[in-house]
Design brief:
The protein has about 150 residues and is an alpha/beta fold. It contains three helices and six strands. A six-stranded mixed β-barrel has the order 1-3-2-4-6-5.
Length: about 150
Amino acid sequence: MRSGQLFVGRVVKPENNWILALAILCVAILPSQISAAAGIPPRVRLTGALVEIGDTSRKGLLQEFQVIVGRQRRMFLLDKIDVAGTVGRTRITLQQLFPPVLRLVGPENLLQRLLSPATTGKDIVVDGLLYIGSRTIFLSEIEEIEVAGEIGP
C-alpha cells in the first residue's frame, strides 16, 4: 500500500448478508434470554417433616434432605414437592439437588419457627424460592398441616 492510498476492507456480498444478520441477531437476543431464564429461581412448596438428625421413627415418601438452618442441622423428610408454574419438573428438580443438602434462609421469625420444638416432627409445608446452584431456599412461608385423627371403632 502506498502513501496517500485509502485501504478499503473486504466488501460483503449481498448473498452473505443473511449470515451477518443471523450472527447479530444471536448476539443481541440470546444472552438476554439465557440470563432471564437462569436468573429467576423456581418457587417450590416442600411438604414433609423436620426432625433431628438420627431420628429413624419415620421416613420421607420421596427423599430425605439434610437441612441447614442457621448453624443447626436437621433432616427434612420430604413427602411431596410442588414446583410452581411447571408440569412434570419435580423429579428433575430433585435430581438437581444432589447431594441432598439444603440451606434454608429467610426472615428470622420463620427460621426460629422451624427450629422450635413445637414444629419438630410435625408435618409442615415450606414455601420459598429455590436457588438450585447453591442448594438454598429463601423462605417465604411455613404452614403446619393439620393431620386428621384416626376414626375409632
